[in-house]
Amino acid sequence: MPFTKTELGITAFQERSPLMNARQRAVFVLINGVRDTSTILRLTSGLSVGVEDLAHLYHQGLIGRATVPPSGAAVMDSQFQSAFAHVPQPTQKLSEAERYQLAKSLATQISGSLGLLGLPLNLAVDSAPDCEGLRALLPRLRKAAGPERCQELERVLTP
Asked: Do 82 and 52 contact (CB within 8 A), yes or no?
């Protein structure tokens, strides 16, 4: 089954989001709306990429199904279907600890990209004890890095 990249996926890729690990980034590069699942897995076989990596990208909303599959596209096999069944849906809520972990990683990435000017923010992010502390830093992060760079962080911090 062919996949396409979503806007969220392109942004996450460009900003090196923690939503994608190195294997998933390699898979993401190969997705073009034409290559089917078996081709992508064959091309990434040396990287130990599995169907669960594709399923993760799909359930995070980083890739989507191609609207018009190319002629002769292979039908999704049972191994691939079973991989999708076991991956948690994005509608499942993160625990507060998971939310904090992801939000702190994103906030550190944003503040770290500001160079020396972001050092005070980076220290503030490191000392934030919980999600509420990170929410309090959002206005400063938005002012320093811009609202578009903080969208993913805001989404993660929203309960």
From this structure: no
Whether 60 and 121 map to the same domain: the answer is: no
Q: CA angle at residue 108 from 107 to 112, to 5 degrees?
A: 120
**Mean pLDDT throughout 6-19?**
89
Instruction: Name the residue among 9, 3, 10, 11 with its Cα closest to residue 148.
Output: 11
68 shares a domain with 11: yes
Instruction: Of 44, 49, 60, give the one whose Cα is nearest residue 7.
Output: 60
Q: Same structural domain for residues 80 and 126? A: no
3: helix, strand or coil: strand
Burial label for 6, CB within 10 Å (0-12, 13-18, 19+), is middle
What are 68-122's pLDDT values in tens digits? Answer: 444 444 444 444 445 444 444 444 567 888 888 888 888 888 888 888 888 899 8
**Domain end among 41, 66, 86:** 86
Residues 115, 66, single domain; the answer is no
User: How far is residue 34's CA from residue 68's CA, in Å, rounded to a whole number?
Assistant: 9
- Residues 128 and 120: beta-carbon distance below 8 Å: no
